[in-house]
Specification:
heterodimer; A: 215 residues; alpha/beta; Rossmann fold; 6-stranded mixed sheet; 3-stranded antiparallel sheet; 7 helices; globular; B: 323 residues; mainly alpha; 0% strand
Chain lengths: 215, 323
């Protein structure tokens, strides 16, 4: 179980996360929603250890969290003049993964022998998603994975996320598409002004949109 | 103030901001970038006038070509949509004159008033009919070692034009029979490679590594060794085959260059993520490494610095790798 205890984050004098407490169980999909600027990406970066924070982020079974996380950032960065296959090969080496899972690499039928510079937004997103899946992670943090992807890829993404869940992985998922969240998630947390304001379970998902309108 | 003057002024100020941000977005301090650019421009201008026949006319063509290169097609489309034809013309005219000022100043310095006038006159119709060069299709260039040396094949593609010049100058060095001509392409490529190592990567690209800081730096060193050996192999072979009596100097250059690059690598992570401090330190270090060719005892100081830099780099990236 992934546990956040009194997690806070400030940029200078500006506090963007206020004593966040949460527990994320294994084998479940946890949705995170909130308005733009609510602190979703900051929270994810803190969990990954890409940002310093106050408080504790721990896992009951894992000591070095970083090496067990597969992270899809909201705006993945790609080196210029790099082919899709080279990007994936880089991640494979960086994560010290032996052998490439061809089924995963071909999952979206991307033109991997072309420069990423020529990819569309959706193609870049799919490539970053494959990159995040490389290596046997226990926790997957997917920051708006459905942005800009076509309908078929959207379905493939959902299938893959459900497969991860079946395999007992912990998935943190943020999205602005409510239907995708309610379809996939076992629970949804509402992040408001840098702290969790409400938690929704499947029976109360109908309240999400109404609450969002009132924020 | 009439609307079109306000509009043209705003457009020009926007283009100037873009120009300054070009450097900062590439991790270079704008002041350093502009000084280096002016320096390179002056060197190139002097060289053209000293070495090439019909230099004046080549210079005018180059000035017009630089105008073409600096016309983003999309921006012209947006401007034509938003502005009247008259305002568009005035904005482009002012922009093009600003871009050609360095060329005009140099032509004035050379007392080439006829060429300067021709350049100015050509700008007028060009500003009216502003057109852009078609965007080249992204064709994939091959690069050696695609599976491992990630920075290398990224860098290789970045320096490909310089690498072609490097090889060409090596051939010139052989044909001219002058050993020292061969050293020019060596230093040129070394400088470009070092520049590539001056840009810090996104934190997530370090974070991804599942290893400790020492192992991370070992991997980076291995990639650099492959990159360096691959890049400078033609230089080494040319020295061995065509200038065997001076091969000692070639080897010394090769070793000094390798040490300079290793230093550049450690400095990058020592000062990560500050691009400015990294680049300044790397340039100073390169100077020391090059001076060590003439005075080998300097190598000792350099090696000591490399050791120190390695330890600092290891400490600095520990927090990202969480080990």
């Amino acid at each position: 179980m992934l546990k956040l205890e009194q997690v806070s984050k400030s940029y200078g004098k500006k506090r963007v996360m206020h004593s966040v407490n949460a527990s994320f169980e294994d084998g479940r999909v946890h949705g995170i929603i909130g308005l733009n600027g609510a602190g979703k990406t900051t929270l994810f970066n803190c969990i990954c250890g890409l940002l310093d924070y106050e408080g504790d982020i721990t896992h009951t079974a894992i000591t070095k969290l970083k090496d067990h996380i597969g992270y899809l950032p909201t705006e993945p960065y790609f080196f210029p003049r790099i082919k899709g296959s080279e990007y994936l090969a880089f991640i494979q080496h960086a994560k010290n993964v032996k052998g490439m899972d061809n089924e995963l690499v071909q999952y979206f039928d991307l033109p991997l022998n072309e420069y990423i510079d020529g990819y569309s937004t959706g193609m870049k997103r799919k490539l970053a998603f494959i990159g995040a899946m490389i290596g046997a992670a226990d926790i997957y943090i997917l920051d708006e994975p459905f942005n800009g992807v076509d309908i078929k890829s959207n379905l493939l993404l959902k299938q893959h996320i459900l497969k991860l869940k079946e395999n007992g992985k912990t998935i943190l998922l943020s999205s602005h598409i409510t239907s995708s969240l309610t379809e996939l998630c076992d629970e949804v947390h509402l992040l408001k002004d840098g702290s969790f304001a409400k938690q929704y379970l499947p029976g109360t998902y109908n309240l999400i949109e109404q609450d969002m309108m009132e924020l | 103030m009439p609307w079109f003057i306000a509009m043209v002024s705003y457009y020009i100020s926007l283009r100037l901001k873009q120009f300054v941000r070009f450097f900062s977005f590439n991790g270079i301090h704008p002041l350093i970038g502009i000084v280096v650019l002016l320096f390179l421009f002056t060197i190139a201008s002097v060289t053209i006038f000293q070495k090439l026949p019909y230099a004046v006319w080549i210079y005018v063509v180059l000035a017009l070509f630089s105008l073409l290169e600096l016309q983003p097609a999309k921006m012209n489309v947006i401007l034509r949509q938003q502005l009247t034809a008259d305002t568009f013309f005035k904005a482009k005219l002012l922009e093009n004159i600003l871009v050609t000022i360095p060329f005009l100043v140099f032509l004035g310095y050379k007392m080439e008033w006829g060429a300067a006038t021709l350049l100015l006159v050509t700008i007028v119709p060009y500003s009216y009919y502003s057109f852009s060069l078609p965007k080249p299709k992204l064709s994939v260039l091959p690069s050696p070692f695609p599976a491992y040396a990630f920075e290398y094949h990224n860098m290789f593609r970045m320096v490909m034009p310089v690498y072609a010049i490097h090889l060409l100058l090596l051939i010139v060095g052989v044909i001219s029979g002058n050993f020292y001509v061969m050293l020019v392409p060596f230093f040129l490529l070394l400088f470009v490679m070092q520049t590539a190592y001056g840009l810090p990567e996104e934190a997530s690209y370090i974070w991804l590594y599942r290893c400790n800081a020492a192992r991370f730096l070992q991997k980076k060193m291995l990639a650099l060794l492959i990159a360096y050996a691959g890049s400078f192999l033609p230089f080494l072979l040319t020295g061995l085959v065509f200038y065997p009596s001076s091969f000692g100097i070639v080897l010394l250059c090769f070793i000094a260059g390798l040490i300079a690059m290793l230093g550049a690598l450690f400095i990058k992570y020592q000062f990560y993520p500050s691009a400015l401090v990294t680049q300044i330190t790397q340039i100073i270090f390169l100077g020391f490494a090059v001076s060590a060719i003439a005075s080998p005892p300097v190598f000792i100081i350099i090696l000591l610095f490399i050791g120190f830099s390695y330890l600092r780099a290891k400490r600095n990236i520990k927090s990202i790798l969480q080990c």
